[in-house]
């Protein structure tokens, strides 16, 4: 099995998901869009995974590669019905690429905060495997303000009504971060846009408090990530009978 992973900054990689993919023998190709990597043909890929980044979906003048990225997402989801998982910016790009809207929040959602599944989320075969209410790490200042046609909200938070959504049977957008490892918070804390949002929201010393909170909840974060990944892989396997158990994951 082979995944295409779109990245927007080196520090925002699949994180703990790399371990899960390695266990399953999934090969994955990382495309570093901010470094000028071109998106390859989608032929031969079983799923697309799109990670986060400090840019916004509407910043096409500053980041012109957003245009072909959105086209590739639309091709994957609408034309090919390819299993898709978008995290944070990837979640927002899924909405934008399919005709929804994304806008700035009144105040960034940053911290370790509660997320609640909707009724549709509880019934969903992928996200419904996590607890009905759970803690998640948030670090974003934009949100999905209008869903694309046919989308269903799967999770929400008090300040962000669209924390997760599904389009069709196999495309999922997740606003909160599921890919966390013990190194994630400090890796992201040096990114200027993230550092500024964190300081505005949590004040001085916020990075250390965020790291301490992440350490406390990391076991639950990773367990929920495992459950979500296993559900997503079930979708991928149902759509791709080419699954093989050999091979190794490509380090990104």
What is the strand and helix layout of this fold?
Blueprint lengths: L1 E6 L9 H7 L3 E6 L14 E4 L15 H14 L4 E4 L1 H9 L3 E17 L1 H5 L9 E14 L4 E6 L7 E4 L3 E4 L9 H6 L2 H11 L3 H34 L13
Parallel strand pairs: 1-2, 1-3, 3-4, 4-9
Antiparallel strand pairs: 5-6, 5-7, 7-8, 8-9
Helix pairs in contact: 2-3
Give an overview of the whole structure.
There is one protein chain. With 252 residues, the protein is of the alpha/beta class. The protein is built from seven helices and nine strands; from the N terminus they run E-H-E-E-H-E-H-E-H-E-E-E-E-H-H-H. Helices cover 34% and strands 26% of the residues. A nine-stranded mixed beta sheet has the order 2-1-3-4-9-8-7-5-6. The longest helix has 34 residues.
Spatial strand arrangement across the major sheet:
2-1-3-4-9-8-7-5-6
Report low-confidence residues grouped into runs of 5 or more.
243-252
Please state the CA-atom Rg, rounded to the nearest Å. 17 Å
Q: Report the average pLDDT across residues.
A: 93
Structural class: alpha/beta
Shape: globular
Helix content: 25-40%
The oligomeric state is single chain
Strand content: 25-35%
What is the N-to-C succession of helices and strands?
EHEEHEHEHEEEEHHH
Spatial gap, N to C terminus: 16 Å
What is the count of DSSP helices, taking H or I runs of 4+ residues?
7
Q: How many strand segments?
A: 9
